[in-house]
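Sequence dictates fold. Below is an illustrative record:

_____
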Amino acid sequence: MINALVEEVGVNVEEEVTLRIGDVSVVCFTGYSPYPVEKGETYPVTISLSFFGDCELMESADSQPSLRQIGNSFAYVVTGLLCDDVIDAGIKFQDEAFLSDFGYLSGKMVSVTVDRIDVEFL
């Protein structure tokens, strides 16, 4: 669980929300919210990466963590340091597949393209 500031709430897509987590701003897909979410408010959330196909993690030549949105979609290229089952891209994303399928990349900068970043409001 982390705290996130709601910067924007989607107008055209009801599930779209832009969050600020630390110094990072990210457009997310709201998978679950037990209450109405309001711009300018801070909420406890969990975030996760969503893949519609296979997860394809690869070593990256980039030395800085980043989250780069692909167009105006929910998709992102996530680049960060992989430590066991966590990619630290300014926001930490945990997934067991990172360790079980890509453990050999632990300790290295990696990149992965995700279909969306999901958020659940707690």
Remarks:
- The chain has one helix and eleven strands.
- The first helix runs from residue 96 to 102.
